[in-house]
């Protein structure tokens, strides 16, 4: 199938009257809206219920979506530039999306967005949707207020205004590599958390012990890669060694419980080099051959150097 430009796609609906749908800055032809009455799931397939037969079958993971070409092509550059293959089992075309960011659940949300159903963005789904919209090339060229711009605005103005929402988004990026990295979602989240930890002077010294929901404690629950990114950024911002030390100690308590009794704490703060140095008794460490344990152990040891 030949590539279709955004101007050509817009001309498809020129003969029809246009109605504003939800966002007044976005106009959809009547016949596009009328394609979908509702969505229905049967076994491992999603069907668009409509009086107009579907002409496109899309497979994401082990889920198949039966839809119409036009709503997807009108918003997704990927669809307009991909040569669709005729389906061997039924009328219409078939497309398999390999390694789709966020999987079938994310594609379901995008499909409903393409049919102009309400979009509910949240810190839990915005990172997968941002990555998936990049995969599908859902740019302003194809639709004003398309999904890339919507998710970017949500991350910038909603997520990064709250460290709790930022933590939620950062955790959701665990299975979105390399998309979340390439789109700078991970970097922006880590930078915000590091900045907040370095500049929040209203947290009492003992709050880590008293409040499991505080910023320091929550940073210490991150996965290894993201935790290291936050701590490294904090050190680059010249965070107080006492703050960095508390977070690392909390991380050790969370992920190295078998050495909890042997955790000797912070030995010194390296005031000359502004580097944190601490020591952990290793006798019981060496007794464990667990890969996960070893990985967390090496993470903590890295901050000694």
Automatic annotation (TrEMBL):
Against PROSITE patterns, the record matches this protein to:
BTB
Q: Which UniProt keywords apply?
A: Ubl conjugation pathway
Report the superkingdom from the record: Eukaryota
Q: What is this protein called?
A: BTB domain-containing protein
Keyword check for Oxidoreductase, yes or no.
Answer: no
**Higher taxonomy:** Eukaryota, Viridiplantae, Streptophyta, Embryophyta, Tracheophyta
Is this entry keyworded Cytoplasm? Answer: no
- UniProt source species: Arabidopsis arenosa
Which Gene3D superfamilies does the entry link to? Potassium Channel Kv1.1, Chain A
Pfam families, alphabetized: BTB, NPH3
Fetch the InterPro entries from UniProt. Answer: BTB/POZ_dom, NPH3/RPT2-like, NPH3_dom, SKP1/BTB/POZ_sf
Q: In which pathway does it act?
A: Protein modification; protein ubiquitination
PANTHER family per the UniProt record, alphabetical: OS12G0117600 PROTEIN
Which residue intervals define the domain BTB in the entry? 54-123
């Amino acid at each position: 199938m030949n590539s279709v430009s955004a101007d050509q796609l817009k001309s498809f609906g020129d003969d029809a009257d246009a109605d504003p749908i939800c966002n007044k800055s976005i106009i959809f032809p009547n016949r596009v809206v009328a394609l979908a009455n509702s969505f229905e799931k049967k076994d491992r397939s999603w069907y668009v219920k409509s009086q107009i037969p579907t002409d496109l079958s899309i497979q994401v993971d082990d889920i198949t979506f039966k839809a119409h070409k036009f709503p997807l092509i009108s918003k997704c550059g990927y669809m307009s530039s991909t040569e669709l293959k005729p389906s061997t089992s039924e009328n219409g075309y078939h497309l398999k999306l390999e390694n789709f960011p966020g999987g079938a659940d994310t594609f379901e949300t995008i499909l409903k967005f393409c049919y102009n159903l309400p979009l509910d963005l949240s810190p839990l789904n915005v990172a997968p949707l941002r990555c998936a919209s990049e995969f599908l090339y859902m740019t302003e060229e194809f639709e004003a207020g398309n999904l890339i711009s919507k998710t970017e605005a949500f991350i910038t103005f909603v997520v990064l205004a709250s460290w709790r929402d930022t933590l939620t988004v950062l955790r959701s990026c665990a299975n979105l590599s390399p998309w979340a990295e390439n789109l700078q979602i991970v970097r922006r989240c880590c930078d915000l958390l590091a900045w907040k930890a370095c500049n929040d002077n209203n947290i009492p010294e003992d709050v880590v012990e008293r409040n499991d929901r505080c910023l320091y404690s929550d940073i210490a629950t991150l996965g290894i890669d993201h935790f290291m990114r936050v701590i490294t950024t904090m050190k680059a911002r010249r965070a107080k060694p006492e703050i960095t030390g508390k977070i690392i100690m909390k991380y050790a308590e969370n992920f190295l419980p078998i050495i909890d009794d042997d955790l000797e704490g912070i030995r010194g703060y390296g005031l000359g080099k502004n580097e944190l140095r601490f020591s952990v008794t290793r006798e019981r460490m060496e007794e464990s051959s667990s890969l996960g344990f070893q990985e967390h152990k090496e993470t903590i040891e890295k901050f000694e150097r």
